[in-house]
Design brief:
alpha/beta; Isopropylmalate Dehydrogenase; 11-stranded mixed beta sheet; single chain; globular; 334 residues
């Protein structure tokens, strides 16, 4: 597999990005990388080889750049060139930890939206208490959604969980303010009916407070609500670990207890760590494009690469296209 990497995207680029790439090369023997960015900075951590090709560019899309304007004006930016490698057939997938809106724009303009998908979704895996995790669609690609958008999110999410995480019948939940069928906005009420009458394993409305308990394998919502959920989970986890650290170092006795419990705390942190779940897939594009977390360290970026590789190996995009085509054909026959 050939993977294009934006080596300059993210808070810790290029060091963490390149180190994550090196870990991936050591793990996956079939992986070849195209690293795009400032060559002098990249070569501090890795040298070109049979499996590593460098494309030098000085242009970088910054986190505070306007997405559409940046993609159109910075045509030689590392992120843009990474996605264009996929468009040109020189790479099977692309990964970036850079500006989310710019990556979505670049993906749409270069890779293109798959036929039958009205709006792509930004879709991360989030942790659950049982360690299985759940897929949340959408977390910010589209703030204003239609019922058909959320139904397509459910189809794409179901395929992803089947192919990548081997869940035979992914449970689909609709994020809402209550579990009753009549709850919510006009949007959620219409989506509820669509999902209820589909062949998907729809488990009904789910509340935000139950998400970490693993109430569903795939949770669909509009991008505004999804982004709030994502940021709330991230913020709560960071705050919780901060409080624990403060309390466990507040006295000599607490420090002794912390030393004894250190392995258990490490396991908890590992289970709730976003870096273990890879990045957020831009579902609905014609090739795998993965948005790694902006603050990705080496481990997080490695897992984003692993996610892109799995999506390619399991032909997730092709399977989604087939499922969308089946759904479109069934609607035409009604």
């Amino acid at each position: 597999m050939k993977l294009a990497v934006d080596a300059m995207g993210g808070d810790n680029a290029p060091e963490s990005i390149v180190k994550g790439c090196k870990a991936a090369l050591n793990t996956f023997n079939d992986l070849e990388l195209i690293l795009i960015g400032k060559e002098a900075e990249i070569t501090k951590y890795i040298e070109p080889s049979e499996r590593v090709r460098l494309i030098h560019t000085e242009e970088v899309i910054e986190a505070d750049d306007s997405p559409v304007r940046a993609v159109r004006r910075k045509k030689a930016a590392s992120m843009v060139l990474a996605v264009q490698q996929v468009k040109a057939g020189l790479a099977d997938a692309a990964v970036s930890a850079g500006n989310t809106g710019a990556l979505m724009t670049a993906g749409l303009l270069s890779v293109g939206r798959m036929k039958g998908i009205e709006r792509p979704a930004l879709s991360p895996m989030l942790p659950t208490l049982d360690g299985a995790g759940f897929l949340l669609l959408d977390v910010g690609a589209n703030m204003d959604a239609k019922p058909s958008h959320l139904f397509q999110y459910a189809l794409m999410g179901s395929v992803y969980m089947q192919k990548v995480l081997n869940v035979a019948k992914p449970r689909i939940g609709l994020l809402n303010v209550g579990t009753e069928a009549g709850k919510g906005t006009e949007l959620t009420k219409e989506v509820y009916t669509l999902l209820e009458n589909s062949s998907l394993e729809f488990v009904g409305n789910v509340e935000a407070r139950d998400l970490l308990n693993g109430v569903a394998d795939v949770v669909v919502c509009d991008g505004f609500s999804g982004n709030l959920v994502l940021k709330s989970i991230e913020g709560t986890a960071l705050a919780l670990f901060s409080v624990l650290k403060k309390e466990l170092t507040s006295s000599f006795i607490n420090k002794l207890a912390a030393g004894i419990l250190k392995p258990a705390f490490k396991q908890v942190k590992l289970q709730m760590d976003y870096s273990e779940y890879g990045g957020a897939g831009l579902f609905g594009l014609n090739a795998p494009v993965i948005k790694a977390h902006g603050s990705s360290d080496e481990r997080a970026f490695f897992n984003a690469i692993r996610q892109a590789r799995t999506m390619h190996e399991e032909q997730v995009v092709i399977t989604i296209q087939q499922e969308i085509a089946k759904n479109t054909e069934a609607k035409e026959q009604e």
